[in-house]
Amino acid sequence: MKDMRKSAQFIKALAHPTRLAIVQGLMQGENCVCSIEKKLGLKQANVSQHLNILRSEGVVDYRVEGKQRCYFLVNREKMRKLISCID
Q1: Closest C-alpha to 48, from 71, 27, 66
Q2: Which residues contact 86 (CB under 8 A, 6 or more apart)?
Q3: Neighbours of 44 (CB within 10 A)
Q4: pLDDT (tens digit, 9 = 90+) per residue, 9-39?
Q5: For a designed S-S bond to 72, which of 30, 33, 52, 65 qualifies (C-beta 3.0 to 4.6 A apart)?
Q6: How many domains would you assign to the chain?
């Protein structure tokens, strides 16, 4: 049952239009928060909240470049397969 809860949390993290848009954008490669903001037309705080949820479930991670955090998919192939199932 514990594995099912973990899987449900993972799916729940993706079950938001903004988070799906972030994941799809990161399929092309890593992006800094400011780039994600511009592409989605959202405020930095909103984007950061969604990225924190995705990061807590192991979907994304980041590296620091100067003062910016550049986010990337932890497992791009897994996300590609999952997104193709959704489509």
Answers
A1: 71
A2: 20
A3: 11
A4: 988 999 999 999 999 999 999 999 999 999 9
A5: 30
A6: 1
Q: 77-87: buried (b, 16+ CB within 10 Å) or exposed (e) per residue? A: eebeebeeeee
Q: pTM of the full predicted structure?
A: 0.90
Structural domain including 80 reads 2-86
| Tokens encoding 87 | 């489509």
Q: Which two tokens stand for residue 32?
A: 């800094």
DSSP state of 29: -
CATH code: domain of residue 9: 1.10.10.10
User: Residue for token digits 């994600």?
Assistant: 36
Q: Which two tokens stand for residue 54?
A: 């995705």
* 8 A C-beta contact, residue 15 and residue 61: no
Which pair of tokens denotes residue 1? 């049952």
**Spatial distance between the Cα atoms of 28 and 4, rounded to a whole number of angstroms:** 30
Tokens representing 58 are: 């192991």
